[in-house]
Design a protein that fits this description.
Elements lengths: L9 H5 L15 E2 L5 E9 L4 E7 L4 E9 L6 H12 L9 E7 L2 E7 L5 H7 L7 H20 L2 E2 L8 E3 L8 E3 L6 E2 L25 H4 L6 H17 L10 H10 L2 H4 L8 H8 L9 H9 L16
This protein binds adenosine-5'-diphosphate and magnesium ion.
């Protein structure tokens, strides 16, 4: 499940996905047992699903609806996603799920409406870069979200700027993690680590995944932090050094040897300890999340959590 179009095989390519596919749902249709979720229009299409703006007719609240086909290879993704969202109900940094159900040849999830994703926010800024101060604030929150997700026994495996959205209105200074279609339980019910498989199919996005995924090794909590590290680099620097590298072998090699200063030329050198600390962690390690937050905070004079983000001011 390589999340990059140029690596899907020819048969898959024939079927248009996400944004390029015609809208799965017509506007004005009402979903749910009591038909209270009225579709307005499609607002985003990711690799697999489509996201719609809708209204909960019961309370007139705006909601988001994610829709995926209920047949085919990827049909289980949205079921998995609803499982994760159910476990993360009421947890900060996760959209609240209101309803999940089938509709004709589709499955859908109704959830809290969020704002733009960090990838789109970055691209809309004149510099195509997010300020270090904003990125540090976002990073600290995402580490907190990951800690909460991991504490429930799940890893995300596809964390990246487009899978992180800011909230709306009074939640505009909060970050939410979305898209759990590639998540995996890494703990058994008794809290012990699941045994690592000898070889794992690729899960994630080649640009942001840890170098270990390129070797098809089992991912653990640390790999979500690697994804965050590379995502922050893209947000702060505007691009990653391997942006134009096509070959997966070359990409893996660059990630293994690329020095921190090459990835983060604008960040203070003390941020290198983020990288050093990640390299010390094993697949089964529980990261010291607070340490990663402290390293992030040390890169700015003061973390002003009340300031407006530059895209809101
Ligand atoms: N609850 C939401 N509210 C608003 N926009 C959302 C919401 N969830 C996802 N999105 C937007 O839709 C895009 C695609 O959704 P995502 O869940 O990532 O689907 P995919 O699995 O297809 O990548 C995201 O990048 C984000 O911009
Ligand atoms: Mg996505």
């Amino acid at each position: 499940m390589l999340n990059r179009n140029r690596h899907v095989n020819k048969n898959q390519q024939k079927e248009l996905r996400g944004k390029s596919a015609p809208p799965y749902l017509d506007s004005r249709i009402c979903l749910g047992k009591y038909k209270v979720f009225q579709i307005d229009k499609m607002i985003a299409g990711g690799g697999f699903g489509q996201i719609y703006r809708a209204t909960n007719l019961d309370n007139n609240e705006e909601v988001a609806v994610k829709v995926e086909k209920s047949v085919g290879n990827d049909a289980q993704r949205i079921i998995l996603e609803s499982k994760v969202l159910e476990e993360m109900l009421g947890v900060p940094h996760f959209p609240r799920m209101f309803y999940v159900g089938p509709y004709k040849g589709f499955n859908f999830i109704v959830m809290q409406m969020l704002g733009l994703n960090l990838g789109d926010i970055r691209k809309a800024l004149p510099t195509r870069k997010i300020s270090i101060h904003s990125a540090v604030r976002l990073g600290i929150q995402i580490v907190e979200g990951l800690e909460l997700l991991h504490s429930k026994g799940w890893i995300h495996r596809d964390l990246k700027p487009t899978n992180c959205c800011v909230g709306l209105d009074d939640k505009r200074k909060q970050v939410f993690i979305v898209d759990f279609g590639m998540s995996r339980r890494f703990k058994n019910d008794d809290g012990s680590h699941r045994d690592a498989r000898f070889y794992c199919g690729f899960r994630g996005t080649t640009r942001y995944c840890s170098y270990k995924m390129h070797d098809r090794r089992e991912q653990g909590p640390v790999d979500d932090l690697w994804c965050l590290y590379y995502s922050l680099a893209e947000l702060i620097e505007g691009q990653l050094p391997w942006r134009d590298v096509e070959s997966l072998e070359e990409l893996a090699q660059i990630k293994k040897v690329c020095k921190h200063e090459m990835i983060f030329p604008s960040m203070p050198t003390k941020f290198a300890s983020f990288d050093r600390n990640l390299r010390r962690l094993k697949q089964t390690s529980t990261p010291d999340y607070q340490k990663f937050q402290t390293i992030l905070a040390s890169c700015v004079k003061f973390v002003d959590t009340n300031a407006e983000f530059e895209w809101d001011s």
